Amino acid sequence: LDPTIECSGDAIANGRAELARETDAWRQRAADWPAPVGVAVGNHPDVVSLFLALSQLGKPMVALEATRDIVGLAAACGLPTVVRRGSESSSVDDGSEPQHLEVEAAATPPGTVLVKRTSGSTGVPTGVCFDAPSLLAGVRQIAAGMDLSADDRVLLSIPLNHSYGFDNGVLSLAVLGTPLILQPSPLPRPMLRAIHDTEATVLPIVPPLVRALAHVRWPTHQLRRVISAGGRLPPQEASAFHRASGRPVHNFYGSSESGGLCFETDPLAAGSVGTVGQPLPGVEIKLAGGGETPGTVVASSAANRIGRLGSTERLEDRRVRPGDLAEWTEDGRLRLLGRADDVLNVAGRKVRAGEMEAALGALDGVSEAAVVAVEDAARGDLPIAFVVADRWPICSTRLPDRLMPRRLYRLDALPITARGKLDRADLRRRAQAAQRPSVGRNSSRARPVPTAEADDA
Questions:
Q1: What's the rounded Cα separation, in Å, for the pair 164 and 159?
Q2: How many CB atoms sit inside 10 A of residue 102's CB?
Q3: Stretch (H or E) spanning 102
């Protein structure tokens, strides 16, 4: 990437020199590796030096989750080389060479330096490719929108293989010179200790961690930016976090194919509630297919992906469609309304799952709600809702009929993926299982909620 890093202070200068030495060591080792190279070492500093070394060699790096069957995943992705965590160490096992697989190497567009894997929360994960100019544009847009610089200290516990973690962690360090602190545990107590001890100033987290940190006693700290992304953050949870920590939460919106898109610079403004802020500098967002609003998000940016893993074609249409339905507020903020494909056909009526979730979330005692559908021969889609509530039973009688789910089940917490996103696939499995008579009575699963049900007619 050959970034120009402007930084001062002996600690940062020494860190930069150490990073240069580690990058050079990896570059020598990786010179003969067949590419693309899968990297699955978890949240370890080697991610940074490996990425820089491979980019200097012109070998695409594929950021992988550190799964048990990492070899199988690498083979399925067409990666002839995979670097993984050592078996008896929290770091890469330097005593052996990375594993080489007898697989046909996946194609990538010319200039590719990084392949991000999509989350797969709405389907099968795919690989999206970026060149150096697109990555540089993305991190600079984030830096300008968030006022991020080498004077900050970023504390990160979210996975580095996730687009959110890579952009706000690896790239902010490599391009901006912003010190990166990797926190291995996302649990509240070690997180708070790290926030205090490291004097971190920027904390990118996901909604479940916002919720966990909102109900603990905070130490003194130097945080000036707390950023939430990766899923919807209920306003009441953001308010609880603000009361506990003394810092508001800035909502951030992006996608694996585009990097950052929107950021809320003034989370205490009345108009910011329920929105993800305004487009980052250099990002243009239009809403398609909905006339005025709402519509599906279409994002144009120099940071967007250049192609896909498995193809050498550079995409001419660099616009990205993350698949989200949204609307503009009067003051130019973007409000997400759910996935564009989460439109249910309930007995011939079109209902957005996100609209049902918002209505349920507004009920007294409900902190979270998620709606999925199961097939029904008579009604088409059968809306099944899962809620997290602090009182029981909830009163849903004021919901209009069109927003009333067919079944309501209570959970202690909504399931999330390793990346902090709502695991809708898990909820669909629970919903299908809950329709069988023996399942609803199992206390280890979703518990049925006494509530009025829509008329089968």
A1: 8
A2: 6
A3: none
Q: Where are the alpha helices (DSSP H) in 88-166?
A: 132-146, 163-165
Q: 205 and 156 in contact (C-beta within 8 Å)? A: no
In 3D space, the residue among 264, 261, 243, 245 whose CA is nearest the CA of residue 253 turns out to be 261
Pairing, β 407-410 against β 380-389: parallel
End-to-end Cα separation, the chain, in angstroms: 62
Distance CA 154, CA 48 (A): 14
Which residue in 282, 271, 263, 253 sits closest to 331, CA to CA?
A: 271
Would the pTM of this model clear 0.85, i.e. be above it? no
Task: List the structure tokens of 14.
Answer: 């020494």
Strand order in the sheet with 295-300: 284-288, 295-300, 324-328, 334-339
pLDDT, tens only, 313-365: 999 888 999 888 899 999 999 998 877 777 777 766 778 888 888 888 888 88
Among 120, 121, 118, which Cα is nearest to 129's?
118
How many angstroms separate the CA atoms of 22 and 45, rounded? 10
Number of H helices and number of E strands within the chain? Answer: 10, 24
What are the structure tokens assigned to 300, written together? 């144009």
78 and 104 in contact (C-beta within 8 Å)?
Answer: yes
* 257-285 tens-digit pLDDT: 998 999 999 999 999 998 999 999 999 99
- Check: CB of residue 334 under 8 Å from CB of residue 345: no
* Amino acid making up residue 74: A
d(CA 95, CA 99): 12
